[in-house]
Amino acid sequence: MGLKRYFFPTVLASCLSITGLVANVGDGAALYEGTTSFQNGAPACVVCHHVENSRVIDGGYLAKDLTKIVSSYGGVDAGARETLKAMLLKSDDMPSPVMVKAYNGKELTESEVNDLIDFLVNADSKDVTSSNSSMGFVISGIIGAAIIFVLLNFLGKNRKQESVNQKLYDRQLNSTWRD
């Protein structure tokens, strides 16, 4: 029983990390996506924003698409990093009233902002021609589901194959009370 208790969660965690559904701690993609929580409890960026990147799931379309945000501020050489950092460090300096309200009292730390900006710089530098991130997510889900079904079949191999009252039923069928 002890082996079965730890076998399934261990294999599941391994499958998720292999398929890329679990990001590394301290990674800007994980912070953006919400798989790593912000230190002060701020909401994940993916709730409202979208970034075209294979490392994260498709995000919300309620706010600006952040895929080319670094280019829109002139690129890294033109000081986009400093501009974005100034906007994200203090909730009062954020670009929209909704963000000001959502992040008020839940400001991002400097390391979190740097990780997010590094992720956005990387996303901006990629040549995006089509949306492959959602297809990768679907394929990862199918692979993960197949692995889970195989594991459940393996773990259920020794289960009881007949109903609990099968012997009583068979005995009643063989009885002579009907005569």
Would you mind describing this structure in some detail?
With 179 residues, the protein is mostly helical. The protein has a domain at 24-131: Cytochrome Bc1 Complex, Chain D, domain 2. It has eight helices and no strands. The chain has helices spanning 2-19, 28-33, 69-72, 80-89, 97-103, 110-125, 133-155, 166-173. Helix 1 runs antiparallel to helix 7 (133-155) and helix 4 packs across helix 6 (110-125). The protein is elongated, with a radius of gyration of 26 Å. Mean pLDDT is 80; it is low at 17-26.
Question: What labels would you give this structure?
Answer:
single chain, 179 residues, mainly alpha, Cytochrome Bc1 Complex, Chain D, domain 2, 8 helices
Write the layout of secondary structure elements.
Elements (H helix, E strand, L loop, with lengths): L1 H18 L8 H6 L35 H4 L7 H10 L7 H7 L6 H16 L7 H23 L10 H8 L6
Helix pairs in contact: 1-7, 4-6
Beta fraction: under 5%
Shape category = elongated
What is the name of the CATH class of the domain at 24-131? Mainly Alpha
Low-pLDDT segments: 17-26
How many strands, what sense, and barrel or not for the largest sheet?
A: none
Could you say what the CATH architecture of the domain at 24-131 is?
Answer: Orthogonal Bundle
- Classification by helices and strands: mainly alpha
How would you spell out the order of helices and strands?
HHHHHHHH
- CATH topology type of the domain at 24-131: Cytochrome Bc1 Complex, Chain D, domain 2
Amino-to-carboxy terminus distance: 49 Å
Spatial extent as radius of gyration = 26 Å
Helix fraction? 40-55%
Q: Tally the helices.
A: 8
**Overall pLDDT level:** 80
Report the strand count: 0
